[in-house]
Design goal:
11% of the residues lie in helices and 35% in strands. By secondary structure, it is mostly beta strands.
């Protein structure tokens, strides 16, 4: 089922872009009914790497929902974080979930925005929004039942959030 959704998402992306578009999506997850990734991407030069790991006996799904509109978002080739986001140690464009019941959502709109999210554990939730140009966001959650939400608007905003629970 995960593979089918990924293929549908990639097919939808390819149909909605001109032939010259160079968006890149790498899905590293093994097929598992409990991994869900819903994507909508419109611009060019956006790059994402998704990894979802859930045990076969997990009781709750991991879900990533992304929506991007502009160009050069996520982790385009050669991009690196700076400032607060650099301290996270995450790679721009990587969205990773290990465990169960994790939800990450993001909505970008502008261009040249870098972001990464990591959830390790269970029942963690990240929302987001990034608007404008040249913004950076890195969010990581370890343990269970963490909640993080952020919003950026304008140019050059930079945030790093790390949450640890037992």
């Amino acid at each position: 089922m995960n593979r089918v959704r990924a293929c549908l998402a990639i097919g939808a992306m390819l149909m909605s872009f001109p032939a010259a578009a160079e968006n890149s999506l790498v899905i590293l997850s093994a097929p598992n009914l409990l991994n869900v990734a819903d994507l909508t991407i419109t611009g060019n030069g956006n790059q994402l790497s998704l990894l979802q790991e859930t045990s076969l006996d997990a009781a709750a799904a991991n879900t990533i929902r992304v929506s991007i509109s502009g160009n050069g978002n996520g982790g385009p080739a050669g991009s690196v974080f700076s400032g607060a986001a650099l301290s996270s140690g995450l790679m721009p464009g990587s969205l990773t979930q290990t465990g169960q019941g994790n939800l990450a959502s993001l909505d970008v709109i502008g261009s040249r925005n870098l972001f990464a999210m990591l959830q390790q554990g269970s029942h963690n939730m990240i929302t987001g929004s990034i608007s404008g140009t040249g913004n950076q966001a890195a969010v990581q959650q370890f343990g269970g039942n963490n909640f993080a939400s952020f919003s950026q608007s304008g140019t050059g905003n930079n945030i790093s959030i790390t949450q640890r629970s037992r």
